[in-house]
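To assess whether the prediction recovers the assembly geometry, we first specified each molecular entity separately, as shown.
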Amino acid sequence: MLSCVTSVVLVGVEPRRVNVEVFVGGGQPAFVIVGLPDTAVREATQRVRAAIQASGYEFPGRRVIVNLAPADVPKGGSAYDLPIALGVLAASQATPKGAADVVALGELALDGQVRAVRGGLGAAVVAEETCLRCLLPPESAAEAVSLGRAQGVVAASSLREAVEVALGHRSGAAIPELIGDAPPTADLAEVRGQPLVRRALEIAATGGHHMLMTGPPGAGKTMLARCLPGILPRLTGGDVAETALTWAAAGVPRRDPTLAPFRSPHHSASLAALIGGGSGIPVPGETALAHKGVLFLDELGEFPVHLLDALRQPMEEGHVVVSRKGASVRFPTEFQLVAATNPCPCGYEGDSLRSCQCPPRAIAKYQRRLSGPLVDRFDIAVRVPRVESDEMAGPPGEPSGQVAARVAAARKRQDGRGTRNARLGRSELDVLHWHSAAEGMLEQAMRNSALTARGWDRVRRVAATIADLDESDVILSRHLGEALAYRGQR
Amino acid sequence: MNDARLQVAFGGMHPDRVRDLYDRHGPEGTLHRVTGGGIKTTSRVRAAVAVPAATRRRELSAAGIDVVYRGELRYPEHLAEMPDAPDLLFVRGELPRRPAVAVVGTRRCTSYGRAIARDYGSAIAGCGWPLVSGLARGIDGFAHRGTVAAGGVGVAVLGSGIDVLYPREHTNLARGLIESGGAVVSEAPPGTPPEAWRFPPRNRIISGLSAAVVVVEATVKGGALITAEAALRHGRQVFAVPGDISRASSAGSNLLIRDGAFPVLDPEDLIESLELLMGPPPQRPVAADDVGVQGWERELLDLVASGVGEADDILARCEASPGDVLAALGRLEISGVLRCEAPGHYTVAGRTTPGR
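The predicted structure of the complete assembly is given in tokenized form:
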């Protein structure tokens, strides 16, 4: 007899439907899984057999063939235990046929309990497309529910319960609250002093500009960067789904799915960890997890050059394609890059109080590493000075909530342009309304060779953002002047 | 006579020793005694001195190096007044004859000293006075940079041979000095490595070329204080810029002030004092009036001119929003009134025009 349970496979971040076809027929007793299973999937035979018997059903004493279709996409992990078990029960007529009409995902324990797996959100997406109910372990269901995909999602904590829920004989198990990762964010109220950096941060958040902070150790660069998600507008609609799918694909649930993601990979991270990779089907890397959010590189100067070079494609194109044996996958990577660096290896070069202990050659080497194509992509460069002691004792800064309100208002002005200011092209910048004084200033800057061609566009993008924050439709010379003060390479 | 002096100079002996030998035997007598073994020297010195002067002249002209002998008209008058003036100088570029102003300080400078060195370098050179320093890292280098930026005449006095630029990253700076009408000089023969013992005698040349010595940032045990000492010995005026009393890099200059050096607080102050000492400056720097700086930008410019160079400090002293301050700074930078060395650090650009 034949039955078919629907399940899901994640190709990159994209969930695809998988049909778990089960045939139970004559011949010698055997249990075979085909359709590019990996070792974990193949071992399902043992778990499924034990779980079926422990749940009080009878495992068929005939030939059992399981096909995971499409048969050419590699499948891995233990998540196909539950759909296989449901299929075997339906095909051997131990349960009615209706028990197989679900999208199911879950690992089975030998005693018939269902264990959590990743991919709950993907299963919910497939269930929505196929108009089937989605049967998941409670913890995996929590992932889907937290992202507003509660429609048709039911949970089961054991195989027997799963069968009864699938047949509609009982409602599903309780779905717990999602225990997810909260990003290490900070509130701007905690930042004392630093008025210029706060301003730069606000502009960067408004236009989505890449930002570079340079300053001595302990000046608060990391903390300032962590404030950024809190002042970025909340994610909406498609962005929430896109980021959630990416995070789900990496198996890291998020507590607050509408908060802009924040990722800060260590400088010892591998290329695969940063860009995405792994054997079989590639999993998303840090650049993909930072999609629609912030990628923070602390100690930029310590990152190996090949990692920084690898960032250029994702930064420019907004996505990265990773090819492995299993599949070639495209990850969205529209992140905002924020980097922090010391001015020299010891960190005190240019400091007003402490003299730098580094040999000049070491400073030159350190700065050479930072210069070049990557630094050329930062729209905003700011110095983060040490905080004076009287500022530390001073009043708390403006809280993130107030800044976020201004950022959101200014973002609205950008909506008509189709993209955030940081991604405006030259022709799109040309059609903005420039005041004649601002244009004169730009020309003067070009004449004084204070700007390169790329710098020219960058300064104009930042000026447009400053005008947005100023609620001005015309970009004035004061907006441009401020933008010029933020340019990095001189 | 000059042949003997040139040959002896190529021995690279300590200037005090050469002077002592000349006093006793004269240049020719010294030459004979060194080559003949009558005076104890190393074989290296003997071999170097033995090379005929004609060969040396050919080598020097091939390398584009000039020799200026004491007693010649080209020899700076001010330097010749010193009893321990060098017998000859190897020169690249044009050695100015008028008295100069020296700006010296520590190699390990803070951003405070760096900004001051540049500003003072620009201000002095902008007045048309030659600026002398040692082309070392730190204060020396920044004073020279200020000179070049202001389009002034600068002289770098080296402790090594004139063709051995140390530190190497100042190669372009040295070229800039020569190209803008200044010079690189040394009393050590070409090819001499930067040996530590050559720097104190070098410092006496810096002071000798100058009518005044400005010590910007100095440690207690540094070359800058040796230069200041030489300056006092030669009767030059010593100026010192006060610094943080708790900082080692300012201890030397503060000590000089305690011992009677003239404290300077800003470039105008210094220029005024220098005028009393050296007469009116050949040129006058013209400030930012011609680029339409007005209103509160004027205030901001004065603030930067008074040495408040960090954008954060400027903001802290103005009643304005961060955006307005940065906008003004950006505008002033683009119009060439201000210069920004690193993000957030501003100095007044030393723009000059020929005298009134």
